[in-house]
Design brief:
425 residues; alpha/beta; Rossmann fold; five-stranded parallel beta sheet; 12 helices
């Protein structure tokens, strides 16, 4: 076939283009930077919404939870982020519940719809967790609850709610089991129980479990007293306690109420034969910091105590990191926030995706052995309701301003002190 001039021109243009490209490639090797390689696809950011009380009477609790959570996240980000997501860094967005259920729900909605978080964590108080998790359920957003203990939270048929801590159906029973064990050990009779609890979901559920369980072991509830949470004066409640014949006081109070009750006990000269608190305010460092020696001898159910680091390395490692940064030991609330962060990192690695259903699936597939969790639990494994079935409780006692594990007796690091007189003499 005869080659036309137009054909020769086309071949010439094609050849010129090839020559230019080859020269460009060559110059790129000779003069680095002349040809810019395509930018790598940036790893996605993982947004975690933290719902805790950051202002108001429980602000110290929220601060400590954020602090504990941040230790794990800072370490993971510094080590290269979530590997299965191309090194994605985790950033948290704070939602201040102010300790109020309505505010918490509004903050949960804001974090989901405006901040576009991938998962929610919170919200300490059971009443606030209830409303926040309802919002998450409505939007199909995974919700990790490290710290709320009302049994009903995992009885709502929710699909996106996962609670790592054991709940009060177990923990309140631990308190009464301890009374029974002391009776046997001491040959004592402690049959009459007074219940004092704040009038929100957590306090009400605490009393409900106690009222159902105590009679099965032969105990009688002689006083069932709810009080208004955040009360400015508790004199009438303490006078009622003084006027009631009882052996054991079981109490459920957050920090400010726990401090005020103890001060009022001293002012009005009240001291129970045995005093057991349901965690919360009585185990926070500021309870001892505020009251000094007047905080001594109260028992409390717990889920963590720093002294157990002597028998479980994961507990020691976690508490040492917290103490190195903040100069005091974790309590159960802080330790649960730390554990939640470690669990979330593991879930995200296994999910390998930020799709809600993939994160949900990874939560459901969690099965941590005992040695992996920095708590005195048997591990972490969620049942079909979203409840960790491997959680266990302990009891501690404050003596000389320090919490020590005293029950179960096989796990105790020190013997309990009982009977005792009021620390104020």
């Amino acid at each position: 076939m005869k080659e036309t001039s137009s054909t020769r021109m086309k071949y010439g243009i094609v050849g010129l283009v090839i020559v230019v490209l080859l020269i460009g490639v060559a110059l790129g090797y000779i003069i680095p930077g002349l040809i810019t390689p395509p930018a790598p696809t940036p790893a996605p950011k993982i947004k975690v919404g933290l719902l805790w009380p950051l202002t108001g009477s429980l602000a110290l609790i929220g601060r400590d939870q954020v602090n504990a959570f941040s230790i794990v996240i800072d370490e993971v980000n510094a080590a290269g982020g979530i590997k299965s997501l191309g090194g994605a860094r985790i950033e948290w967005v704070l939602g201040d519940t102010k300790g109020d259920p309505k505010t918490g729900a509004a903050e949960a909605e804001r974090l989901i719809t405006e901040a576009k978080v991938d998962v929610l964590v919170g919200a300490y108080q059971s009443a606030v967790t209830a409303t926040c998790s309802e919002v998450a359920e409505r939007y199909g957003k995974p919700f990790l609850n490290p710290d709320s203990t009302s049994p009903g939270l995992t009885e709502r048929g929710f699909k996106w709610f996962f609670r790592a801590t054991p709940h009060d159906a177990l923990l309140v029973k631990n308190m009464i089991d301890f009374v029974a064990d002391v009776e046997k050990k001491e040959g004592a009779s402690l049959k009459k129980i007074a219940l004092v609890y704040e009038n929100t979901l957590w306090g009400i559920d605490t009393a409900k479990v106690a009222k159902e369980y105590a009679p099965t072991l032969g105990y009688t509830i002689v006083l069932d007293m709810a009080y208004p949470a955040g009360a400015a004066d508790l004199s009438s409640e303490v006078l009622k306690l003084k006027a009631t014949d009882h052996d054991v006081l079981l109490q459920a109070s957050y920090l400010s109420d726990a401090i005020l009750f103890t001060k009022t006990f001293k002012e009005l000269g009240y001291w129970p034969k045995m005093w057991i608190a349901n965690d919360a305010g009585h185990i926070h460092p500021d309870y001892v910091k505020t009251l000094g020696k007047d905080a001594d001898y109260v028992f409390s159910r717990e889920v963590f105590c720093a002294d157990l680091g002597a028998v479980k390395p994961a507990i020691k490692t976690a508490n040492d990191k917290f103490r190195a940064r903040y100069a005091y030991d974790m309590d159960g609330t802080m330790a649960r926030a730390y554990t939640a962060a470690a669990l979330l990192v593991d879930v995200l690695e296994r999910a390998g995706s930020l799709k809600p259903e993939d994160i949900q699936k990874a939560f459901k597939g969690t099965d941590w052995p005992e040695e992996k969790v920095s708590m005195p639990w048997k591990g972490i494994k969620f049942d079909e309701t979203g409840q960790n079935v491997k959680g266990v409780g302990i009891l501690v006692q404050i003596v000389d301003g320090v919490k020590r594990t005293i029950w179960p007796f096989g796990l105790a690091t020190t013997p309990y002190k009982w009977p005792v007189k009021a620390p104020w003499g």
